[in-house]
Here is the input.
Amino acid sequence: MRVGLDYRPGISNPNNGIGRQNVALASVLSDLPGVELQLFTPAPLDHPIRAKAHCPAWDCSVDGQHRLPRRLRFELGYLPAALKRAGIDVHISTFNMGLPLPPRPRGIRYVLQLHDLFQLHLKNRHSSWLRETVYRISDNLSIRYSVSVADRIWTPSRFSADEVARTFPWAADKVRVLPNLVPTCTLQPTAPPTDLPKRFWLAVGTREPRKNIPWFVEHWAQARSTDPTVPDLVLVGGGEFVPPQQRNLAGLHLMPTLDDAELQGLYHAAERLWHPSYAEGFGLPVIEAMAAGTPVAVASGTSLDEIVPPGTPRFSPHDGAALEVLMHELAHARPSDPQALRTWAQRFSEQPYRARVTELLQELQA
Here is the structure.
């Protein structure tokens, strides 16, 4: 089976959730017996990806991959003919949209990896009102088109699968769940780039409003004001997305986006990871923290309910008073069993992921 994979997320933003899953899927597909993987992406003329991927002859900067004119040029002007020339049997797009525009090569099957539908239902953060409007309209059209032409839709959680079925009832029978891959980390964790206290809590991801960080910081600060044993808080993802009045709070440490080794260092050093998102399609940092043996506390109501073991501390992402009570309790909690957390996280490791991808490809082939 010749499998084509849209590799744009893998070179444009390999450190965010979708980019990391794009890279992980490419790694698994390249090792599956009976699968011949072919990568497709625009790229700068001097980019090393051109040595191993199908790329248009024209130049495209890495940070311009998802701008609408370049997307149309790639998805309409290049991709259909390139897939046909390469004899692709199954083509996979991994960033909620992006399947090729017509004409569709004969005999090819399309797979859409749809992580969530928040681009349709929630506001994302953009640099201007005009940019937000353009992207909201274009993303809406592209997601709906990709859902309509996909032969299968792979979602990382039952929560996202149910959201697809609710939004697109006519596509419900095409949806399959493929939990995200959290590879076994082979990196040596490195120390954080700045000095941190011995005890601290951690939250990863600050950019999107759905991550609920300002609300979480507000109630962490309130809990800390009445109980000095509440640990410091480290936020990873960029302080520019935190309200100015919160950036200088005592005990709050703002980190930029880190590389994998630095992030692993934080996971291992943190006393607990908190994930307060009120809308989440999977929750990659939660699994990564548990894989490091670090306990977690998660907001209830979305996919986070699915990925944590029974007994995990949970809280409503809208009830600040209850969150503060939980923070007081966990500031004095006994340590969790790190091996039990690592064992739980193994269900999202390479072996079960590889088996599920194989199963899904065999279904398409049949």
